[in-house]
Amino acid sequence: MKARIGLEIHVQLSEAGTKLFCNCDSEYRRYRPNENVCPVCLGLPGALPVPGKRPVELALAAALALNCEPPRALVFTRKHYFYPDLPKNYQITQFEKVGGSPVCTGGYLDYLSPDDWEWRRVRIRRINLEEDPGRTSYEGSILSSRYAYVDYNRSGVPLLEIVTEPDLKSPRDARVMVEYLLLTLEYLGATNPRLEGVFRVDANVSLEGGERVEIKNIGSTLDVERALRYEINRQRLVLERGGKVERETRHWDAERGVTKPLRYKEEEEEYLYFPDPDLPPVLITRDLLEAAREKVAEWSPRRVYEEILGLGVKREVAWSITSVPAAARTYLAGVKSGGDPGILARIVGVDLKGELREQGRDPYNPGNWPEPGKLAELSRLVAKGEYTYDAVKGLVLPKLAANPEAPLEELLPEKVEDLEPLVEEVLKEEEKAVKDYLGGKKKALNYLVGAVMRKARKRALDPRRARELLLKRLEAMKTGA
Ligand SMILES: [Zn+2]
Hints:
481 residues; alpha+beta; 3-stranded antiparallel beta sheet; binds zinc ion
């Protein structure tokens, strides 16, 4: 039974700097309740909304990144409903059916699936720019709480509502697409996908012969996959037992891992939509469009990934670098300043990134990465054979991850210039391995090389040279010299 999946993704433009219609902060999480507010986002009488420049620019850039033809003007509409977290009793959004004009209709996104390294396409039906409501919270559950607490710090934060066509084929496919979409928006500097509650997903899914079911309230990309998997199994069971899948809206309960029916559904008309008389259309000027176009062209996951592939890097490593924007910037700047593309890719995309994670330092934070020139230099030292990659990986990268500011000279391990004394010691101590080798067990040589390396302790030595020296001495023993 084939599934058809479409998504509605709400993403806050957390990096916009301001809310959509006032100058309060778009990143509200750092404030105490009701601290990040003003008359506009509190909906006080007489306060007038003014569209912010950055939110509009970012929304436009998102529309272009999703291959939409942008409109000549943005027109905002009011969507009415009563809820304590909505102080004006309406939300400003863009509803095209009543004369609203969204930032995008009819686009598409090509996204990379790291499962099979194929590019897939999902059509984008529409993107709206709207304001996020405030937050209501309770002590325990809504039923047992004595009070409802309302916090307007989030009220008015710019929010993109991105609606896809039902082109997605599987729960995994849907998850991969959302992850790629979030990365695309992160590259634009529009959002930080790792902030708590920064995006929410509603999914609709139908199986052949069944009605469309909508799932609300999915809060992570992992849960996109889990919720859809659960829901598809549920629908399949209903159909296999000869039942009918009803058209309905369900709620994702992440803790229990199930979808549950929602009691009632508001019809679109109940919202009493109409164009907001406080907000004249926002004209999309040529300058605005050009600025957005440049932004999209110079820095996107696809462009970066393909540039790294073009340097001869394996796709797994290229994607590992691309998927962390701070790593991608470090890598490309390192190559530009003369780093060895292959060795640098291993450092940035595999071992230093892994070391940062190991030490609990966030690889998405640009401040945790060393200056690109330093890594470029390190890669050149390996390329020239001054140090082995293993010595850099084992002795330098852990220190660099702990202190990205440390100068390279202090981090580079002391080198063992004179290997011969170490080789002699090992030949004396490892009688059995020597005998094995002379008796024809070639593998014993690896053990002896390892023993020399261990003798070097925290100093770096060249294992190829150690092997050569050992061989020379062993062959001499064979011939009895
Ligand atoms: Zn405000």
